[in-house]
Amino acid sequence: MINFRFYLVSIVAVFLALAVGVVMGYGVLGQPTVKGLQSRIDTIGAKAEEQRVVNDLLSSELDSANSGVQSAVPFAATQRLASTRVAVIAARGVDENAVDRIVKDFGTSGVSGLDLVWLEESWRFKSEKSQSTAIRLLGLESGANKAEITQAANTALAERLAFGSSITGSDLLNKLIDSGFVSLGGVGGSTPKPSEVGGAQAQLALLVQPGHADEVKYFAQAAINKQILLAVAEVFINPSENVERSSSVTAILGNEEFKNKISTIDNAETEIGALAVVLALGDLKNGVVNHLGVGEGSQRLLPVWWRL
To answer: For 274-308, what is the HEC assignment?
Structure first.
């Protein structure tokens, strides 16, 4: 008869056998496994160190290249926009360092006047309040929709910046500033009065983030309608995962009328891209349209060189 003692001894024997198996198995397999894992860790660590060295080298080369471009800007940009007034329009959210770099490069191009205008978030006319305010300022019909408001606003602003304020009546730019739609940036350490901004058939440079093709489309149409020389530059810094380079300038590249009259730059966040903005706007004076950068649809990094 099998009694309780038999069961107890059997259970103890089973667990003892398992324990012995674990110990023996570790002795036979454990050390090779640990050594193998350690070897893989060492290999990965070595590759990571190699990649770090490569990254440091590339970073150093990039810094050197940027320094070279910076040194070349005064030579490359000098007199490219001589006796020309330029207004830089930057959508709020565009990297300010990139904007400052572009404005600085324009300052070396011989411009007769240089202005910086920021388009605030309300310029996208998403809220009912911003729409109703714009309708009142622009004298639109009360039933105007967002698309109609946006087109009218961009046309009015482009015309105001290119041709100046009206001799009679109040200044539209001043109204837009007071309503929070736009603001003026300082150039050369000072911020001008609204009445001093633009005019003299100024050429325009629009700076935007990726993913803003609709806004670009409206401004481009305004420039075409009013025969204003315009370059659109995309600043590709900290984009969301859902947008790609050139996703804003696509509004120009995908429209034959726009593409043949408006220049684009898709890497304006870089030193060479900032220089390209200046040179592209200079080329427009001579009837030459460029599509510059590194993204889809770009022709080259910089325009073809020509003597002054």
So the answer is: HHHHHHHHHHHCCCCCCEECCCCCCCECCCCCCCC
